Amino acid sequence: MEAEAVQEVDEEQLQEWRRIQDEMKSEVIEDDVEAWQAEESFCGLELIGGVDISFVKDSTKACVALVVCSYPELEVVEKVMEEIEMTIPYASGFLAFREVGFFEACLQKLEGEKPQVIMVDGNGILHQRGFGVACHLGVRTGIPCIGVAKKLMQIDGLEKDENFQHKKEEHLKMSGDFFDLVGDSLKVWGPEEHISQQQPNLCICWPQDLSGFSDQTCPFLLSL
User: Fold this and answer.
1) Helix residue spans in the chain (DSSP H)
2) CA-CA distance, 49 to 145, in Å (whole number)?
3) Contact 178/194 with Cβ under 8 angstroms?
4) What are the pLDDT digits (tens) for 108-151?
5) How far, in Å, CA of 78 to CA of 141, rounded?
6) Contact criterion met (CB below 8 Å) for 134 and 120
7) Which residue, among 97, 92, 94, 105, has the nearest Cα to 65 in the 3D structure?
8) pLDDT in tens, 178-216
9) Which of 145, 149, 170, 221 has its CA 20 to 30 A from that of 160?
10) pTM here?
11) What are phi and psi of 198, to 5 degrees?
């Protein structure tokens, strides 16, 4: 997600968004309930999706994209892209209120089947209130969603300190390597994983190649 024009949200609106998040949070399902989740091979998983919004610098103009790929071939099956106007200001922890509506609209415009799981540029349960944009989209659509974040959400004792850096150097040496993000509460918030930075025609939402290996890798944080 690229930089955008800075706007502010008043406290009354933030309180209302917090209320909605707290209400919707009870509908989050963290357990594996889909049949394809029962096996390590994900037998039965055939379609995966990815969503993201990229902004025009210093503007409210943006582009929303949804890409659906076959699994395990990772070939593009369908994509929806639209130029949009972002009228709702950004506020940390409330990304869903300005983006999820656009993602839902893209899903409705698919001509083929909807994906069985969606990767979302943002956090899931690894969030100040345990209800990031991926959770919000999942509850709204009923489709399992995975938050894919580029920065560590520092909650439950998780800090981007020397210890965290040491774990990255120790565990993340090549594409596919990961380690669990465990908070002070002993809750596993998700893995930090290295993904290749090659740029194939896999998914326009991210430039990372989920299927290959490369000497150039970067960390991603995954949360349901």
Assistant:
1) 11-25, 96-108, 133-141, 162-171
2) 9
3) yes
4) 999 999 999 999 998 888 888 889 999 999 999 999 999 888 77
5) 18
6) yes
7) 105
8) 777 777 787 777 666 555 444 332 222 222 222 232 333
9) 145
10) 0.78
11) -65, 165
